[in-house]
Amino acid sequence: MAANWRGDRIGSALRGENPTVLRRLDAGFAVIGDVQFLPGYSVLLTDAPGVERLGDLPRPRRLAYLSDLDRLGEAVERACRAADPAFRRVNLEILGNRDPFLHAHVWPRYDWEPAHLVQRPVWLYPPTHWQDPRYALGPAHDALRAALTAELAGDTHAG
User: Fold this and answer.
1) Which terminus of the chain, N or C, has less C-beta within 10 A?
2) Which one, of 158, 27, 35, 2, lies nearest residue 105 by Cα?
3) Segment-wise mean pLDDT, segments of 10 residues, the chain, 159 residues
4) How far from 42 is each of 22, 54, 56, 68, 142, CA to CA, in Å?
5) What is the DSSP code string of the chain?
6) pTM of full prediction above 0.85
């Protein structure tokens, strides 16, 4: 396994070296997020190296990517609802302000989140949540990862 998969998330996924990949979809890779302060956080990576924006894809690939985002969002919703009765909803975001490749964030939201954050964008969480080792993806997330993978494998969304 390449040690620098984070430096080339798409290339490492294409080579089978990205350990966060849950499943290959029609136009991208469903991956579990590096941080899990909101358990179930996932990302949809494009499978087209060099693509920076949704609009860079030809329309058929763009629609396939958005369909994959819908599939991943539904899988996160089902897995997180089953794992935690305080599950509230899923937020979908395509931002691309930091990483220069097309990717979409799938954020599960919960009723147990702090009152001042639960109705606000995830990006307002303090930096400590993004850097704290207790929130880093690891063995503690294996069951949730398995549930997400199972939801993606068993979905009936694909035509």
Assistant:
1) C
2) 35
3) 77 94 97 97 95 95 98 98 97 88 97 94 93 92 96 68
4) 9, 18, 22, 12, 14
5) --TTGGGGHHHHHHTT--TTEEEE-SSEEEEE-SB-SSTT-EEEEESSTT--SGGGS-HHHHHHHHHHHHHHHHHHHHHHHHH-TTEEEEEEE---SSSSS-EEEEEEEETTS-TTTTTS-GGGS-HHHHH-GGGBSSGGGHHHHHHHHHHHHH-S---
6) yes
Residue 69 to residue 57: CA distance in whole angstroms: 15
On whether the CB atoms of residues 10 and 45 are closer than 8 A, the answer is: yes
Q: How far apart are CA 19 and CA 13, in angstroms?
A: 8
**What does the pLDDT read at residue 3?**
62
Phi first, then psi, for residue 107 (nearest 5°) are -105, 115
β-sheet with 42-46: strand ranges across? 21-24, 28-32, 42-46, 103-110, 87-93
The predicted pLDDT at position 155 comes to 61
Residue 4: predicted pLDDT: 85
